[in-house]
Design brief:
The structure holds 2 protein chains of 2 kinds. Chain A has 10 helices and 14 strands. Chain A is an alpha/beta fold. In chain A, α3 packs across α4 (109-122), α3 runs parallel beside α5 and α4 (109-122) packs across α5 (138-150). The relative contact order of chain A is 0.13. The chains are: A alpha/beta, B mainly alpha.
Chain lengths: 310, 256
Amino acid sequence: MKALDISGLTKTYKGGTQALKGINLQVSEGDFFALLGPNGAGKSTTIGVISSLVNKSTGSVKVFGHSVDTELVEAKSCIGLVPQEFNFNQFETLNQIVVNQAGYYGVPRDIAKKRAEKYLKQLDLWEKRNEPARELSGGMKRRLMIARALMHEPKMLILDEPTAGVDIEIRRSMWTFLKEINEQGITIILTTHYLEEAEMLCRNIAIIDKGIIVENTSMKALLSKLSMETFVLDLPVQSTPPSLQGFAFRNIDDHTLEVDADKDVGLNDVFRQLTDQGVTVLSMRNKANRLEELFVRMVEKGRKEQAGAA
Amino acid sequence: MANRNFTALRTIWIKECTRFLRIWIQTLVPPAITMSLYFVIFGSLIGSRIGEMGGFSYMEFIVPGLIMMSVITNSYANVSSSFFSAKFQRNIEELLVAPVPSWIIVLGFVGGGVARAILIGVIVTTVSMFFVDIQIHNLAIIIITLILTSSLFATAGLINAVYAKTFDDISMVPTFVLTPLTYLGGVFYSLTLLPEFWQWVSKANPIVYMVNGFRYGFLGVSDVDYVLSLGLLVGFNLLLFTIAYRLINRGVGIRS
C-alpha cells in the first residue's frame, strides 16, 4: 500500500494564482522521501492539501488508502505534521502543547502524559516541559513541533523545512532522530532547502517547480545523472599560474585553482600534471553541493519544457 | 469515535479554561472591580435617591442586570479573543490537522466562554452580596438563562473572530454594538419608565429579554414574558451555532 497517493492535484487560490497544476506523486510505506523545489514552487501548498490546511481545487489525495474526501478522519489520523512556521501557542508550556495535541486526536490524558514524557525526553526538551514555549531557542521550538507531531503516533510524518535556522549540531541530532524513527517504520516526507539534508536522509525524491513535478526518482538514480563536478584546489602562492591539458580549469587567484572533472575520468591526471609542473596541492574540496547543481539543472529543464509546451 | 470526540472536546475546553485562568488579572479581576464601582455609585450613592423600581430597591433591581452585563461581555470577549489569537498565532492549525469535527471545535470554544461567564457570574454575585441581600425567585430560570445567554454570546464572539482580520475587528462589535445594546437593554431601568414608542423599540433589542429573564429568576418581576425570553434564547442559540458550525466547516478565515 502507498503511504501517499496523489493524483491530478490542482490548487488555484482565490486571487487566481495556480499553485498546483496537476501533481501526481506516490510515496511508499516506510520511505524517507524528499520534496524539493524553489520558493513558491508549491511544496507547502501540497503539504497543506495533504494535511487539510488547504482546500484542493481538483484531484485526489489518499493517505494509506484513505481518501481525504471520503475518509478524512482516518487520513488525518495517519499524519503528523511539522509545519514550516512556528504555530503553537507561545504562552503555553511545552507539556500543555503536546498533551493537548494528543487530546485532539482522542488520546486519553493519562496516556498523553506518558507519551509527552517519552517524546520530550527523546528530543531533549524534558527539562523545559513546564516553561512557556516562547522562552525556547529556535532549535528547541523546531524539536517541540516534532514532538507534538508524534504525540498521536502517526504512520507518516510530514516535515516542512524542519531544520531551517537551526545550527549544524542540532540539525545533525535531528537527522539522527528522524533516521531512527524512519527505521522504526514511520514514513517520512521532508521538504528542505538544505539539499545536503535530502541527500543524507532521503531514499526517494521529487522536484517540484511552478506547480508541477519535474523529477520523481530515487536519490541514487538522480545523483547518477550528475557527471561533472567542480573541485577547488588550494595551492601555495604561485608566481606562474599552472595549466592543465584536457580539463576545463580556472586560476581564481595566485593560490586557488578550479578544475571541472568528469567523474568517469577521475583526478589522477590532474595531480600528475600539477606534480610535473612542481605544484603542490595543499587541500581540495567540492565547489558546490552536487545535488544543488543537479537541482538547479532539473528546475531549469522543467521550465524550458513548460515554456516549450506553452 | 464518540470517545475520541469527547476527549477532543474535553481537551479544547480544558485548554480554554486554562487560558483565561492563566491571565486571571485580565479576565477575572476587572469585572469584579467594575461591578463594585457600579454597586457603589449607582446602587448606594445614586440608587438611594432613586427609591424603588419595579417594587424593589434600586440596588436590588439592578443586580441581575449587572450580573448579566458581565456575563454577556465576558463570554463574547473570551471566545473572540481566544479564537482570533489562535488564528493570529496559527495554532488553530493544531485543531485543523487533527480529526476534530467542526461542531466539536465550536462546542469547545463556546464551552470555554460559558465557563468564564459562569465564573464571572459567581464572582459578581458574590461582590453584590456585600451591597444587597440577594433573593432568588427561581434558581432553575437563573441557571438556564445564564447558560443560554453566555453560550449565545460566546458563539457570537466566535463568529466575529472567524471574520476578524485584525485585533480592531474583534473590539468593534463589543464597542459599537454590544455595549449600547446592553446599556439600553433595561439593566439600569424598567422599560415601563419609557414612553410607549420607546418601549416598543426597546423590545427589538434581544438583550432586553436576557436581562429581564434573568431578573425574573432573581426577583420574580420582568418587563417581558420570561417564557418568551427563554424561547428567544434557544432560537438564537440554534441559529448562531448553525452559522458558526458552517463557517468553521467551510474553513472561512482559517483554511486557504
